[in-house]
Amino acid sequence: MVRPRCYLDITIGGELEGRIVVELYNDIVPRTAENFRALCTGEMGIGPNTNVPLHYKGGCFHRIIKGFMIQGGDISAGNGKGGESIYGLKFEDENFDIKHERKGMLSMANLGPDTNGSQFFITTTRTCHLDGKHVVFGRVIKGMGVVRSIEHVTTKDDHFPTQQVVIADCGQLPEGADDGLCNIFKDGDVYPDWPADLDAKPEAISWWVMAVDSIKALGNEQFKKQDFKMALRKYRKALRYLDVCWELEDIDEETSSSLRKTKSQIFTNSSACRLKLGDLDGALLDSDFALRDWEANVKALFRQGQAYMALNDIDSGVESFKKALELEPNDGGIKKELLVAKRKVSELYALLIGLSKKRNHILECFIDEGSHEAAHGMDDFGSLWHFLSSIANWLK
């Protein structure tokens, strides 16, 4: 018996995150597996109890507990209080033969014995305490990285995600059909988002280097198109593939050194994306990572300086631009940014001098006899408040 495969295409905050592919244990729990499969295809129409489509499409993951599981499938209420199976509102526990022995297990959520509906969860770790209470009916075979992305979405106190995590599309994959993980964004990318989703793990370092270069180039193309979110996504993907390289046996020192330089370049490009997206702390962090692998990376120093300036850390920005200029003395862009930074330092210094003079003048006013008389005339709180507010406005 061939086990059916189903897919869930996930968006987080309205942005496509990727595809989860699951295998269903129809040979062990046929009724439970069929319930999930039919809810993925939507073939059963409208539910007679909830009067909503018996379909996961458009539904959300409403409960996320990091280090435990992600839960969804409430097709009627969307908050964990609803749902309906293809057999009626609820159906019985089929059996507990399969255990929650590892991450990626697909299991039925319930409110107690024999209360299975449409809600399900995916484990993100081993959860043996659920054995004998929840029916396991499948497992994630591709897209565990997407599950991890969902798991790391921030949540409220009740574990409800702060961003919408939606099943944008779902269905059943035909027997023998491609899983659809490659080129999911229709941009010509021939590699799955996560190396773990490759059908086979190539052993040759040359294959991985080619993959990194190809994915990085796609990121550069998206940057030129000013699609900075997608560019950032490609750079993060390139880093995931690059990290695998150091696990391979045939990597030599020359290749390792070249890869460190490539890693630095990718982090530099990632920093540029984050600057464009307004993620200043992320831009600074990525530039720092870039410089760890290549201290003489002029572009990384330049991005670091830009991030510091945007964060109003002018002194650090000046230092970054100075270091960059030492490495590239004729770079006009660095000279321009350094000049702007120095001007800001001068302006801040002049402002501090001005404030210091105003402070001294105010102190002189307070020790002046006339000011004593003026202050003495403020015999109510309102007048004193008005006086202090005037001083505050003067200092601005």
TrEMBL record:
The PPIase cyclophilin-type domain, residue ranges: 7-172
Coiled coil, from the record: none
SUPFAM superfamilies, per the entry: Cyclophilin-like, TPR-like
Enzyme Commission identifier(s): 5.2.1.8
Cellular component terms (Gene Ontology): cytoplasm
Iron-sulfur as UniProt keyword: no
Subcellular localization(s) per the UniProt record: Cytoplasm
Entry's Gene Ontology molecular function annotations: cyclosporin A binding; peptidyl-prolyl cis-trans isomerase activity
Keywords, alphabetical: Cytoplasm, Isomerase, Repeat, Rotamase, TPR repeat
Record-given protein name: peptidylprolyl isomerase
Species the sequence originates in: Prunus armeniaca (Apricot)
